[in-house]
Write a structure and sequence with these properties.
The chain is of the alpha+beta class. Among the domains are: 187 residues, no CATH class; 42 residues, no CATH class. The protein contains 5 helices and 19 strands. Strand 8 and strand 9 form a beta hairpin. The protein is globular and about 90 Å long. About 3% of the residues have low confidence.
Length: 357
């Protein structure tokens, strides 16, 4: 990574304000878990059978209960380190300090990634459930229909159970909030509030429908249903659609293959084993999220390790400077309900446009 410290003779010691929307998903963070080993925690799921008709001739109806101990394993294990050379600290009037680097990293990388992880994990869960997802082009939302669409989404399936408990949160893209604000059917007040505790997080618009908070996601780069967690420059990015040379030595029946001509790809309906040539398979791209709904009762962002270390010059062997290290092991899980063991507390509506396609 190139050295980007500014060696101007006169340099303001204060950083420019970081104008970014800080984490929006803090209601979902929990530390109330029972750990089994380094990356796994324990969740107990129970269900019971119901009443049966009583007989006055005596006797009781036998019921059944099922208790299942389910281990959940964390997989989102991330780390980074920065070395700040002693000369950089002197020559930039201490702007290139561990304190400033840590503050900038947390605001611009760590906090947005927490949101991206939760949004994408919840979206993937909802996309796998019948009745808990939809796909709508951005142009499909209008000020005339946005209120009705949101009411339908927060009332989909069994979400009304969580709505009745006051335990749903609905996140929307900025254009959806714009339309809701212009809607003639919507009479509630839309207020500006700062979700982040302290810092310089952008204020966001928040309102409610039927008691469900509706929260705007301004920084939409974190509002996708899938992410690439290993882009070249680190951090995260929407997963892009791509064509990959297939590893199938013989075309498999039912799969769609593509051939390449120049920079374009064409689908091949059903190539047979006798068709010799290079074939490609298409990987799915992500989609922007329009609306995402979840309950903090059943969706949890679970932190396991949040390690931050600072080493003075001479206290490490990386070089002549201050060393900052940050590791975060966490993950997001949506648990089934306690009635029938099904997941029924999430919903997502995504754009029809595939990223990178």
């Amino acid at each position: 990574m190139p050295n980007t410290s500014n060696y101007a003779e006169k340099w303001q010691p204060e950083l420019l304000e970081i104008i970014i929307q800080e984490t929006l998903t803090s209601p979902f963070v929990t530390s109330n878990v029972r750990w089994l080993d380094a990356k796994t925690f324990h969740f107990t799921q129970m269900s019971t059978s119901g009443y049966k008709n009583h007989s006055r001739n005596g006797g009781w109806n036998a019921g059944e209960y099922v208790q299942t101990d389910v281990p959940y394993t964390l997989t989102h294990d991330r780390d980074i380190e920065f070395l700040v050379d002693k000369a950089d600290v002197d020559e930039t009037n201490a702007t290139a300090s561990i304190k400033n680097i840590s503050e900038t990293f947390v605001k611009t990388q760590s906090a947005p990634e927490k949101d991206a992880l939760l949004f994408s994990k919840v979206a993937q869960t909802a996309l796998a459930l019948d009745g808990y997802h939809s796909s709508t082009a951005a142009s499909g939302f209008t000020k005339a229909n946005v209120f009705d669409k949101l009411k339908a989404m927060i009332g989909a399936g069994k979400l009304r159970r969580y709505k009745a408990k006051g335990a749903l949160i609905c996140y929307v893209a900025s254009f959806v909030m714009d339309l809701l604000e212009a809607s003639d059917k919507f009479t509630r007040k839309i207020e500006m509030t700062q979700i982040a505790e302290g810092g310089l997080g952008l204020e966001t618009r928040i309102t409610d429908i039927d008691g469900v908070p509706i929260m705007e996601v301004i920084d939409d780069e974190r509002f996708y249903d899938r992410f690439d967690w290993e882009p070249e420059d680190g951090g995260f990015a929407p997963a892009a659609a791509a064509y990959v040379l297939t590893k199938d030595t013989v075309p498999v029946s039912g799969k769609t293959y593509y051939t390449k001509s120049g920079d374009s790809y064409s689908a091949v309906a059903s190539p047979s084993a006798d068709d010799i040539g290079e074939y490609y398979e298409k990987t799915a791209g992500s989609h922007k999220i329009n609306v995402l709904i979840a309950s903090p009762l059943t969706t949890k962002l679970v932190p396991k390790i949040a390690s931050i270390y600072g080493f003075a010059p001479g206290a490490h062997t990386k070089g002549d400077g201050w060393l900052y290290q940050n590791r975060d092991l966490s993950d997001v899980f949506t648990f089934p309900n306690g009635k029938d063991g099904k997941i029924d507390s999430v919903y997502v509506d995504v754009d029809t446009v595939e990223y990178g396609a």
